Amino acid sequence: MYALAIDLGTTTLAASLIDTVNGERRSMAGAMNPQRRFGADVVARLDAAVHSGEVLLEMSAIIRAELLRLGSEVCAKAGIAWSDISQIAIAGNPAMQHILLGLPVKSLAFPPYRPLFSCGKTINASELNWPGDASIHIFPMPGGFVGGDTVAFLYGQSQLTVSVDRVGNSYGSRSPVPGSRLFLDMGTNGEMALVAGDTIWATSAAAGPAFEGGNLSCGMAALPGAVSAVRIADEKLKISVIGNVPPRGICGSAAIEAAAEMLGCGLLEHTGRLRDAAEIPSNLAARLIVQNDENAFVIYRDAERLLLLTQSDIRQIQLAKGAIRAGMEVLFDRSGILPGGLEQVVLTGSFGAVLNPEWLKTVGVFDENMVKNTVFIPEGALAGAERALCRDGGFKEVESLAARFRVIPLSGTPLFESLFLNNIDFPM
Q1: How far is CA 168 from CA 121, 135, 163, 164, in A?
Q2: 3-state secondary structure (DSSP) of residue 215
Q3: What are 146-189's pLDDT values in tens digits?
Q4: Please, is 303 exposed, middle or buried when counting C-beta atoms within 10 Å of its C-beta (0-12, 13-18, 19+)?
Q5: Is the preceding omega at residue 112 within 30 degrees of 0, hence cis?
Q6: How high is the mean pLDDT of the chain?
Q7: Rounded to whole angstroms, how far apart are CA atoms 262 and 280?
Q8: Using CA atoms, how far apart are residues 264 and 258, in angstroms rounded to an integer?
C-alpha cells in the first residue's frame, strides 16, 4: 500500500511517497510553487484571487498540475505507478488549500479572516482532475491564517498526539519535554504555535517573503547557487554557496546572518541604518557602496555578477523579524507564559534548517533561553502528513489535535501593532 504526502507551501512544495505498511519513505521531491508569479506572499495571491475569478481558477489549475507532476516524479523514482497510490494527504496554509480546491477566498482576505471550513476534508482524486481513485485528505484549518501545515507540523511530534480509542473517546499522551513549547515555521507567513498544557495558542504573522529570499534585491530561494552563509572575521568576508556553484543570489538565512554579522562589526546601526563607507575605519569600508541612491553592502562580486544587501533589504528584514517577534509576544501575553519559561523552541522549514539561533538573538527575535532550548525538525509539515497516513485512525487524531487550537488574530489588533513597532529596531 502506497500513499503520497504533500506539503503545499506558499514558496516551496514537497512530496514524499510512503509505504504505509512499514512507514518507510520510498522517495521524495520538491519544487517551487508556480503561483509565485501571482505574488510572493499569501496576501498578494489572495488579493489577486478576490479580484478575478479567472485568476483564482488559473492559480488552482497550475498548482494541481504541479502537484500531479511532483507526485508522478516520486512514483517514478520509486518505480511504482500512480495507480498504486491509495491515499494522499495535503497540508498547507488556508489560502493555499482554498486555492487548490478552487474555493472562493474572500472570507480569508477580509475580516474576520475565516476559512470556509475548519475540519479536514476527504475528497476523491477526480475532484482535482487527477487520475486514479485515491482518497485525498485535506488537513483541518483552525483559523484564517493558521492552517493544515501548522496542524501537520505539530501532529508530526508524537508527544502531542491525541489518540482516539475504539468508542471515540480521546486521550492525550504525555510529552517527554515538560512545560511549554513554541513551534515556529518561519517562512512567508510566520506560523507559530505555543503549547501550554492542553491548549495550543496559535497565530500567523505576515512576515513577508524576506526569510525565504523574496523581496530582497538579490534574493532567491535556498537552491543551488544561493549564498547560504555569510561570515565576517578579521575584516574579511567569507561566504558559502549551495551546490558549490557560482553564486547567483542570496537566500533568506544568509541575509539574516549577514545582518547579524554587520551588527557585530559596526556596519549596521541598531536602528537598521547601513553606515556610509566614510564612517568605517576598516577594510570593510570597501564593501560599502551606493547603488541606486541607497547604501549597500557587497556580499559577492565578479566580472558578471554583483550581489548586494541594500538598505531597503535591511528594512525588509526588520519588518519580517519585527512581525515574528511581535506575534510571539502576543502568544506569550494570551497564554500567560514568559519567554524565559519556555522549555523548548521547535523550528521547521527550509529556512530553519540552516538558521543559527544565535543570529535570531542578535537581530532581536530570540532571547538567550530560546537560543539554548531550540531544536530543528526537518520537513515538519511533511512528516506530520506522513504520520497521519501511516497510523490507524491518524486523521481522527489530527482532528482531535486541531480542536485544541486557540487561534489569535493579529491584523488590526492594538497589542500586535504596538509590539511590532517596539520590535522593528535591532537590539542595542
Answers
A1: 19, 22, 9, 6
A2: coil
A3: 999 999 999 998 666 543 333 334 334 334 445 799 999 877 67
A4: exposed
A5: yes
A6: 90
A7: 12
A8: 10
Q: How would you classify the pairing of strands 24-32 and 12-19?
A: antiparallel
**Contact, 206 vs 339, CB < 8 A?**
no
SS3 at position 289 = strand
Domains of the chain: residue spans and CATH: 2-138 (3.30.420.480), 180-209+316-379+412-422 (3.30.420.40), 214-306 (no CATH)
Burial 1-15 (b: 16+ CB within 10 A, else e): ebbbbbbbbbbbbbb
Local structure of 62: helix, strand or coil: helix
Return d(Cα 107, Cα 316) in angstroms, integer.
28
What is the distance between the alpha carbons of residues 114 and 322, in angstroms, rounded to a whole number? 24
Q: pLDDT tens, 239-276? A: 999 998 999 999 888 999 999 999 999 999 999 999 99
Tell me, yes or no, if the pTM score tops 0.90.
Answer: no
Give per-residue pLDDT as tens, 271-304: 999 999 999 999 999 999 999 999 999 999 999 8
Residue 16 has pLDDT above 90, yes or no: yes
